[in-house]
Amino acid sequence: MRNLDQHTITDAVLARQAATADPRLKRILDSLVRHLHAFARDVELTEEEWFQGIAFLTRCGHITDDRRQEFILLSDVLGLSMLTVAQNNDKPAGCTEATVFGPFHVEGAPHYDLGADISHGARGIPCLVRGTVRGPDGEPVPHAHIDVWQSDEDGLYDVQHEGLGHAQARGILHSDAEGRYHFRSILAVPYAIPHDGPVGDLLTATGRHPWRPAHLHFLIEAKGYERLITHVFRSDDAYLDSDAVFGVRQSLIADWKPQPDGSYLVEYDFVLNRAPAEGS
Ligand code: BEZ
Ligand code: FE
Prior knowledge:
Strands 1, 4, 10, 11 and 12 form a 5-stranded mixed sheet that branches. By secondary structure, this protein is an alpha/beta fold. The radius of gyration is 22 Å and the shape is globular. It has helices spanning 9-16, 23-42, 47-63, 70-77, 80-88, 198-205; strands spanning 126-134, 145-149, 170-174, 180-186, 191-192, 211-212, 215-221, 228-234, 253-254, 256-258, 264-267, 270-271. Strand 10 and strand 11 form a beta hairpin. The protein has 6 helices and 12 strands. Helix content is 25%, strand content 20%. The protein starts with 8 loop residues before the first helix and ends in a 9-residue tail after the last strand. Bound molecules: benzoic acid (BEZ) and fe (iii) ion. Fe (iii) ion binds next to strand 7.
């Protein structure tokens, strides 16, 4: 196979990887090669631009560590994360919609009793959060595992505060026998995703801002139901229509109500989809 030219190289690469044993991997790699080559032809990619692309990805690698994941951020701002969520979470009407996971979830968050204050010293206006977890037929889901996390009033998650040493504004609770949950935390505020690296430069070059509308993150799990990864957004937020990572769903927006004592109250009921029967 010599003297390949711009018209024959795609088939040559596909032929070279034709022996890929895993059929799923073969499908993914074949499609990736076809689309990458089609992209280079479509934009008539120059060698200088190819090199700039490599340099951009290299910068993403260099800035990534165990506290910062620039490649996920890149996927998020290009809409790839939300596309993947959307095409894998097509739930029946009435079930709570899923949205992006984001990079700030932490395994092993502290466990709290219902009613506890999960802010654990995080700065912000006090906020009570409550609601129910139900199944698609309206049945309460008791003892659902509710993992919640949010940023503080400066728009930073605890893991972004160097040397903090303990969890703040995150925790795990369980719904009660009637599927109800409630906890205290702080008012969610809009925040800018990390934009001091190559992804920030991409946003600037494309005339985009780095802001996400205020939200609480939830990961809810219960036996017999599908895992739900979602957010609850604030209805009064200026960034609902321009979320930097395309994560907003109308059904996930709630009114966060100011209370006479200066605190806030938000109520949100989750509806979990039933898990497929085992063996099906
Ligand atoms: C978040 O909501 O925590 C998030 C999602 C995507 C990128 C950055 C942050
Ligand atoms: Fe977030």
